[in-house]
Amino acid sequence: MRNIAILGFGVVGGGVAELITKNKREVEALGGDEIYIKYILDLRDFPDSPFADRVIHDYNIIVSDPEIDTVIEVMGGSHPAYEFTVSALKAGKNVITSNKEVVANFGDEFMALAEENGVCYRFEAAVGGGIPVLSPIISCIKQNKISEVRGILNGTTNYILTKMFSLGDTFEDSLADAQAKGYAERNPDADILGIDASRKIAILGALVTGKLVPTEKIHTEGITGVRAEDVKAAEKVGLKIKLLGRCITDGESISVTVAPFMLSSDEPLSNVSGVYNAVEVVGEPIKSVMFYGPGAGAGPTASAVVGDLMEIMRSGRSYAVPTMVKDGSCVRDFGDFECRSYVAMTGVCPECVKDAFGEVQYIAADGECAFLTSSMKEAEAEAAISALTAKGGALKSRIRLL
Ligand code: HSE
After folding, report:
1. Count of the separate structural domains present in the chain
2. pTM for the model
3. How far apart are CA 226 and CA 170, in angstroms?
4. From the CA of 125, how far away is ligand 1's center (Å)?
5. Tens digit of each residue's pLDDT (9 = 90 or more) over 42-86
6. How far, in Å, is the centroid of ligand 1 from the Cα of 4?
């Protein structure tokens, strides 16, 4: 019998308890043992829940109970998730989490602690919700020379961008709709400013490169600057706009970015719509592999959490990677990032644009000058825009091309 404790009885915690209960036969057959949810930690009481008698408010009961084998932390946030995870691992308990913030901030420390204490730390649900992506990358494709892992890692922003494309809605209207449907938080900043995606690309990058890049070293832009005019311009040249997390590596240095990118319809990520997520791994000799599925929600996230529990019960293993190390020194200067750009400006003439950017591909636009540049370094693109603004131009938008 495996006794487990769930920390947090919100959407994900409720989903985990429900999955373990409803799919008892499948779960126990795969895990090879019975599972009993002994405690659920929450600040609230749930008198109408079938788990009402297991709800407790004191974490010390869990960490000091020798019968508890595995702690499932689905509270979110860095604190007290950090303190609870450390004490559970030190007490010899496996820890599973869906909490991308705590993994992005402290995953290196947790993996080392798990190793030291002979227990497991797993976090499949922290990236891509229900998509099995972390384990397959490590177990099935890490033997490739991986040059990039990139993805649509935030369902809320993908829903907003999809609406802007399919209905021509503004960012503000699309955000209000996402909030009404319960996809976006009431305070949606972590989603729309790219913070959530930056945590997820930090985790993906760490599994591929072994280096956990501090999120403050990740160049992060959200989607608040994407305008209906940009969507129209993209459509005219057959491009879509997606918020991508990208971790590019040459085996030594790493470039990690979260920003809106324009993608051609040939790119597999361009067809990922609505609240869905996808992760693409590019490498040799595999070329490109994409994982696709629901990136959030009680059921899908619970599926990933319980998958980790099955893995721990079957193999007693964390991830088959050398310990990841927190390292910001390997991060390449963003000024060296090289790509094509879409630029929209007012108050510029074709001669000035040519002087600043060289030959460009113009896109017909009402009241502004919109064009696609050739590939150039970030620092060069910024210098070209500065040269145009110095001559009276005004930048309306700039979106990089994948
Ligand atoms: N807010 C996140 C999203 C939830 O929209 O993708 C899942 O991590």
Report:
1. 3
2. 0.97
3. 9
4. 11
5. 999 999 999 999 999 999 999 999 999 999 999 999 999 999 999
6. 25
